[in-house]
Amino acid sequence: MRAPLPEDEPARLAALHDAQVLDTAPEEDFDDIALLASEICGTPAGLVSLVDTDRQWFKAKIGLTIEQTHRDLSFCAHAIHGHELFEIPDATHDQRFSDNPMVLGDGGIRFYAGAPVVLDGTHSVGTVCVVDHVPRELTPAQRRALRSLARHASVQLELRRYARHAGAIADRLRQLDRMKDSFLATVSHELRTPLSSIRGYLEMLLEDEFDGETSRRFLSVMQRNSDRLLRLIDDLLLVARLTDEGLELDLAEVDLAEIAHHVTSGCRPLAEHKEVKLTDRTESPVPARGDAKRLSHALNHLVVNAIKFTAEGGEISVDARADDEPELIITDTGVGIPPHDLPHVFDRFYRSAAADQMAAQGPGLGLAIVRSIIDAHHGTIRVHSEPGLGTTVRVKLPR
Known about the structure:
The chain is α+β, with helices and mostly antiparallel strands.
């Protein structure tokens, strides 16, 4: 008789698979448990058995040569329905097992006793069990010992799981520590560079007398560097707010075409300075519902990013459409993004190798901010890129 599935079957399997012990090599700790079970109970076979989706796999086995059996034939599949010892004195007299192929014939299983191996204090994932070819019953002391060995097997599984999780946490902490160091170095550079420039021009203005035109040029450079500092500080503050509170939107009816016109006009001087052609292809209104200020902020980051990574003589186009859904499309003929970088372009503080090679400004926050803004609008953002050919970014907002 096939054992019914336990009520906690999905969670039970999840706990078993999370232990990552299935199909692993033999281990002395588990072999000792199987050996002790066999010797204490006086049976020819002792096992540490784990019940998977459709099989019973033996982590340790004494007196048995096979690695696994089908779950339909498993005594342990019945034992995992509770936390109590499951004992069958004579399988030939039990209707659940009397016609089991592992019972029929000479040398078949007659006696079985299994104590559940429980994870998380809840889920029975297998048993420590003993098997004999003759009918019998365990003594109270043997039953206590078998339950104790099952608890020991549970602890061994839990320790391995905790050790693996601790290792993963340690790896993540090391990664975060490296990210922190990289972030501090990048932000320090991003702050120091414009401040050093401003300070240098101030010193020259204070120490020497320059004509009005030269002074205005100096002040213009200082103003650009001040704006750069303010943008960096604004981005850092925005990221902090996103982390702590989420992003609040001031929703209203907006025209994506108008936002595209405004952003491309504001970015055109930067594009002309790099001798990159920036084209606004939007013609008709594209109505949408959103926060105009936030959407402008996101589009500005995308266009500035395209300008950064497009070489002299390249082209960038911005288009807004109202097909199935309101959509913004930014296309450039820049350096492109390698496939291994694409999954990380929206990560905070992530800078690609191309950014470092081209000495592109920024601590790696722009695209993370864009993603947060679009997510807050319940929209989607997709990036398609070919190294050496360029990149296309598509932003879609709900109707």
